[in-house]
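Hi R.,

Here's the chain you asked about this morning:
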Amino acid sequence: MAHYCDIAPGHPWHGPYHEDEYGFPVEDDTALFERLVLEINQAGLSWLTVLKKRDAFRHAFAGFAIDRVAAFGDAERASLLDDAGIIRNRLKVEATIHNAGVIQALRDQHGSFAGWLDYHHPLPLADWVKLFRRTFRFTGPEIVGEFLMSTGYLPGAHRDDCPVHQRILACRPAWRSA
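And here is the predicted structure, written out as tokens:
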């Protein structure tokens, strides 16, 4: 099976994500929320589909502004389910809105979503999955693993010989200090 480091470089969609985002530490709550939403929406689909719809997701979910999304009501839900630019899955839409409210509570308890992640780090993947399942909606092992790998909490985003891997190491990802 080909590794992402083999297929992404030079690709118009995968390339920029691979080179500039995938595996780099993320501390901003809006960016973390976006990444969680994208990973949830990837379930059952290709990552390319999600990347192509990323701008539409940003627009539909108010730039991933956590407080705004958490306040979405019936009108916004209906609008999202009618928006052909995003993935119109009722469970994923509901999970996104619910999870925004969860992140609000995590900010109250830990100062930020990143603070909550840091508080629990390091954990083995199985424990992360249990924690996410207790905390969020629509977060199974694949979603949790990719979310944590893509945001620098778990290793494995890049092969050791990938040039991007060295750039990530220089950013001191959380998994490196575990």
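One quick note: The mean pLDDT is 97.

Cheers,
M.
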